[in-house]
Each structure stands twice: as structure tokens, then as C-alpha cells.
Amino acid sequence: MPEVRPKKYLGQHFLNDKRIALRIVDSLTAVDCHYILEIGPGMGVLTGTLFQRFGDRFFAIEVDGESVDYLKRTLPGLNIIEGDFLELDVEGTFNGNLAIIGNLPYNISSQIFFRIIENRNGVKEVVAMVQREVAQRIAEKPGSRTYGILSVLLQAFYDIEYLFTVSEGCFTPPPKVKSAVIRLRRNGVAELGCGYNLFERVVKAAFNQRRKTLRNSIRAAFNGVEIADRFGTKRAEQLSVADFVELTLEIQMLMG
Question: What architecture is the 7-186 domain classified under in CATH?
């Protein structure tokens, strides 16, 4: 059957290697998870194994109507949601701990991870295949030029593992870049010790002007707030999650 995808999902490359598909599924532990959700199943290369393994606990969400019809025909009884994950009421749909898995569309993978952060109290595990550079960025440690906004925000609440690289030939159509599979598992952090909204704002302000010292980037973003030398002389990529929490608390105090 021909695949017809809406324009906003043209960044997705569909996996055609069953060996890699099984390896991805096997990477999901789903420990203490009441539900498993696959994002963007497409033609279902992961879906059949997931449905067989998890049964009624397993759901799939797909925006493309033709793919939904195909999955309904080939996997009778599958719990499938026709819609966009970015618009899904995750907490209202899944009343319990959730594991997420999927070959994420390249062009919206960052948006998906921001939605996962928003739903961090319910999303306990994520196994995702993304562009290799995105996977490296998410798993990166402080001090690297690839360490950035998603690195900090995700690492604040998840333990992250870069699992393996996937070559271009494993996809239809073949992408121009390599892909990688990463696993996120919820850590024990319930609250950061500072307000999350301000924390996110500080992290974004710091990395949006990453060539500047933090004194300059924070001053520009927070109406002239002057932070101390401890962080002020550094650049964003030099700060750990704990450092960003301390910086947020300092800014919170300075702002009154």
C-alpha cells in the first residue's frame, strides 16, 4: 500500500530492518509501567512485536489516516489513536505510568522531547530512535559544544543512555545521516528545588547566547540582573544540571 504522509511528517524515515526493530523493542524494559505508547508506527515494523509482547497495555498513536487503516487491518484489536502526539492529552489519556517508544520523525523530535518533559511525572521510560546528532546532544555531558538545552532539561529528570547507532541503509527512504537509539529512564528527582518554569527560562537564555558569558546572556534575558562571578564568567556548556539549579535560585533571589 502506498504511504501518504502529511507535510509536517515528511522528516520521518521508516525502518525496514527487522533485526534492528527487534533490538529496539528489546531495549524497552517498561518496568513499573502500566501503559506502553508507540509514537508514529507507520507501517508497523515495531508495532506487531510490541502488541504481541504487551497486549492491551500497548497503544500506538499515528497521524496518517492511511497508516491507521493499514494497522487496523493487519493488527486487529490494536489500541490505536489517530492523532498527533504533540496535541495528545497524555495525562488524561493514560491514568498511570507510561513508557514511550518510537522511530521519531526527525523534524519534530525535539518538540516530542519537550512534551515528554512536560509529562515527566507520568512518562517513566523512553526508547527512541532519532538522528544521531540529536541522540548525542541529549546524552552529552557538560563541557562539550553539543551539550545544550535538551541535554540539561532531560538530564534533570532522566538517566540517559546512548544505546547504538543505526546506519542509513536500514531505512526507507534512506536518510542522509545516521540514526541512533537512546533510552531515558526517570530518575529519582521529583522537584529541582527551584521553580521549573524559571529553570527552563534560565537554561534557554544561557544556551540561546552560548558564545557569551553567562553574566551577559543572563543580563540580557533578565532585565539587567547581575549574577556573581561563580557563574557569571562561565559559558552555558560548562554548567551541570545542579549548577543550573543553583544559578536559577540565585536569579530567583535577585529578582525578588
Answer: 3-Layer(aba) Sandwich (3.40)
